[in-house]
Amino acid sequence: MSALFSLHSSSTLARALRICVPMALLGAAVPPAMADEDIRLGQTILLGVGDHPAIIPMLACRPTKSIMVKAGRELTLERVKVFYGNDRSKTLYFDKVLKEDQESGWQSLGSRLCIKRIEVYGNSEGSRAGVKVYGRK
């Protein structure tokens, strides 16, 4: 009987460990939410020269207070136009040369807007450059 009890209790212990240990590890690895949560709104590709925007469509509107752009390659970032509400828009002017993996810095939208679409204007130094747009809630 004692051998049967030890097998039963060890399998119960093993099952409890399989459940509790990952939960404890996940709880320790997940940072607490901050008031200014940064979210990636989308990414697109800027082509060489031209005044054609690189468009980031949104499946659902994303409430955002500030915008920041990160370059995948060297590029000249002119402006970012965000669309919200009933096709209202706001344009943020950056006019910066960004190196690879460089960030533009945060620009405020003035208030929290529910963004539906983003247009990025600029030129890449090569044939094309990846661009990631981040928002701050």
Q: Hey, roughly how much beta strand do the residues contain?
A: over 45%
Mean pLDDT score? 80
Stated plainly, the CATH topology of the largest domain is called Jelly Rolls
- How are the strands ordered across the major sheet? 1-6-2-5-3-4
Describe this structure in words.
The protein has 137 residues and is α+β, with helices and mostly antiparallel strands. It folds into two domains: 1-30; 38-136, Galactose-binding domain-like (Jelly Rolls), CATH 2.60.120.260. It has one helix spanning 2-29; strands at residues 38-47, 54-71, 75-84, 88-98, 107-124, 128-136. Strand 3 and strand 4 (88-98) form a beta hairpin. The radius of gyration is 23 Å and the shape is globular. The model is unreliable at 1-9 and 20-35 (pLDDT under 50).
Characterize this entry briefly.
Helix content is 20%, strand content 55%. By secondary structure, the protein is α+β, with helices and mostly antiparallel strands. Keywords: Signal.
